[in-house]
Amino acid sequence: MLKTSFDGALSAARTLAHVDELARDLWQAHAAGALSDDEAQTTAEILEVRRREIRPQDRTAVRAPHVPRIAASFFPAKRRSVSPDRAASMERRRRLAASGPMPPALACLFTTGQLAVLRIVADEFRDKGFCALPLGAIAARAGVCVTLARDAIRLAAGDGLLIIEERRQHQAKNLPNRVRVISREWITWVMRGRGGGSKFLGSTDIGFPKTGKNGEKNSIGDRASRAQHQLSRQSAKPRPYSEAS
Prior knowledge:
Layout: H1 2-12, H2 16-31, H3 37-54, H4 60-63, H5 86-98, H6 104-107, H7 112-128, H8 135-142, H9 146-158, E1 162-167, E2 175-181, H10 184-193, H11 219-236
Antiparallel strand pairs: 1-2
């Protein structure tokens, strides 16, 4: 009879705490001689089965339904960025990539979506001397997702074409990173090729290491070095005719 009451209480249990309480009562009844060894063992097995059933459903809303939920973070949850018109986004990034955002020897190192992102960065650099747009704004203008925009900027920075300045704030949301173009060829392309009468900004002369620590080959530095070498060779070739000014 006592075992039947335990089985009914287990069926009605909804939280792990309730199951643990029943387990305590079970072994106390067994110690008092109210349950035999076989009955106690059978009920214990039912307890373990019930624990496995309840564990995925044991949440705060079940244990305390009247307690108000508290947000897990001070800042609101980020919403997933989805283009309302994928066809228009695709057309936009293809148009931006085909507009020549950087010299061909450098552009061949990036995909269509990455070139669209770098076009947005280059336009901001030409107008303001740096790009401080949030990643969401860059991705929306380029017609790509935020992850692709972030990866494109990091890839260009790894190639030594950009420098990223983080703007962290104490006990506050960080400001968007400030991105600057430092490649001389890219700056010349942006300012003289598409910049009109914009003021020419200087750049930092940096090297591109071909080997990393312990003599390991650095693929990022190597591919940037090849691009820079190709640019220098193209500029050194004699012109078959003089271009009209």
